[in-house]
Write a structure and sequence with these properties.
This protein has four helices and seven strands, in the order H-E-H-H-E-E-E-E-E-E-H. It has about 180 residues and is α+β, with helices and mostly antiparallel strands. It has a four-stranded antiparallel β-sheet. A three-stranded antiparallel β-sheet has the order 5-6-7, with helices on one face. The relative contact order is 0.16.
Length: about 180
């Protein structure tokens, strides 16, 4: 017989509750982060390999320096993947997104700040300004915030339309989540 899984901790319970509220999720485009991670790695690895290869040739590198050049080549070769891993981990920690949830509009567009959830009762409207390339979201307490940038799955006009549609559905309690964890 199989063992029962361990009981969920508060963090897992909060994560499942958050996912259970999810309708749609849109990530800010990651092209720059991927280029920043992989381009230096694609330069460092071959450069290090060439140094190791050159260190084996006595005509290129004197025997006295071969050990140092080999070590430098190995370090350069190893630094390529290490650089990529470090940059990808940094990118994961600073994940930026807009999420449409049953309980509100969830936004994290600044890596220095935590996500903010704006209850649908506070959201008045979302308008896309094509001249500036920004979505302006108006809130009931005379506040507003902007959404700018490129998103992986869709453009800003489509994101604005989806936010407005979600708000209309939420007002009528017709917004449904994508996942159901009620059995878990």
């Amino acid at each position: 017989m199989g063992q029962l899984p361990p009981p969920m901790d508060d963090e897992e319970r909060a994560f499942r509750a958050s996912i259970g509220q999810m309708v749609e999720w849109f990530r800010v485009e990651q092209t720059r982060a991927l280029l920043r991670a992989f381009l230096p790695a694609f330069v460092l690895m071959p450069l290090g390999s060439c140094l190791v290869g050159a260190a084996l040739l006595e005509a290129v590198v004197p025997l006295v320096w071969q050990g140092y050049v080999t070590l430098a080549g190995v370090l350069l070769t190893a630094s390529g993947p290490m650089w990529a891993i470090a940059q990808l981990l940094r990118s994961i920690r600073s994940d930026l997104y807009v999420a449409i949830r049953v309980d509100g509009l969830c936004v994290r567009l600044d890596p220095a700040q935590e996500e903010r959830v704006y209850d649908w009762n506070r959201v008045l409207d979302a308008e896309y300004d094509a001249s500036v390339g920004v979505i302006s979201v108006s809130l009931t307490d005379a506040e507003s915030f902007s959404i700018a940038g490129k998103f992986s799955q869709l453009g800003l006009p489509e994101l604005c339309r989806r936010i407005r549609d979600a708000r209309r559905l939420a007002v009528w309690n017709r917004l449904t989540p994508r996942f159901d964890f009620s059995d878990s």
